[in-house]
Amino acid sequence: MSNQQNYPVGTPGTPWGESEKQEWYARQRVQRPYAGEVLAQLQPLAERFDLVQYGVLPIDPERYPLFAARSRDWTAAKPCVLVTGGVHGYETSGVQGALRFLQTEAERYGEHFNLLVVPAISPWGYETINRWNPGAVDPNRSFYADSASPEAAALMALLESLDCEFQVHVDLHETTDTDNSEFRPALAARDGIEMAVWDIPDGFYLVGDTSCPAPEFQRAVVAAVEKVTHIAPADAGNRLIGEPLQQHGVINYQARELGLCMGLTEAPYRTTTEVYPDSERVDGENCIRAQVAAVTGALDYVLAVSGSGGETTPLR
């Protein structure tokens, strides 16, 4: 099945040029405040974490400073953990889940890990509830050298400046009904192609990295989240969003080849979460809690296998 919807920008079958991209940009509207919903939550955390401004967005540097939170007592003796949210700005629980993890859970892991949490990689996308950045570029297809995405380039520069090897990377995302109603039609229009559509999975699932699938790690994260919310069942073809199911609630992508944030590091334990906020079985709070459970489930698993003889007893 292909997405053949007429999109209000461009000519069907013809890739966009600069004028179409500018037309698309002119249609976008700010719908929520980055300063009020993200920066205001980060500011009080300065009492417990080191807040690092690692860049700005060139579209409006004063409006869009980029911040990360880093655990204190950062030492070479501890493994490093990266938690990222808001690569796709419209995916609300990714941003708010990263913030909630900092507010409620992160400190208790500081004894064991160097934590770096980047809650809102794409603040313009957060404000306009958008998948792309102002240049009609998907930041989560842009993690490569000489990136066309300032959002991706700034994060890559931050990680390079730290000069550390990450053991864990959890990238927080959502799959929404608007993926089929807006964002995939926009992609088809931008690139002048027909785009296959699929059923949006009703529930939480994970995307592992094909080059480093870590199935036991993925299984542990799913089990942790399942205590909070439901896991998406596969479709009739045993797939999720068009990809073969690897195990309960898990599919794999070629992260590095696709320029995904998940493929940014060489962490042996890496995953992308996908929450479904449009399900009748959840609300916004449940989605945020699911993201936090994914992060804590990941860290509890790594702690268990590295220091508790392989048992999976959560850190409490």
Automatic annotation (TrEMBL):
Pfam family, one: AstE_AspA_cat
Domain of life where this protein originates: Bacteria
Active site per database record: 257
Coiled-coil regions, chain positions: none
Cofactor(s) listed: Zn(2+)
Record carries keyword Metal-binding: yes
Domain Peptidase M14 stretches: 30-287
Single annotated GO MF: hydrolase activity, acting on ester bonds
Keywords per UniProt: Hydrolase, Metal-binding, Zinc
Gene Ontology BP annotations: proteolysis
Family matches, as CDD domains: M14_REP34-like
Keyword Metal-binding found: yes
Family the UniProt entry places it in: Belongs to the peptidase M14 family.
Protein name: M14 family metallocarboxypeptidase
Species the sequence originates in: Parahaliea mediterranea
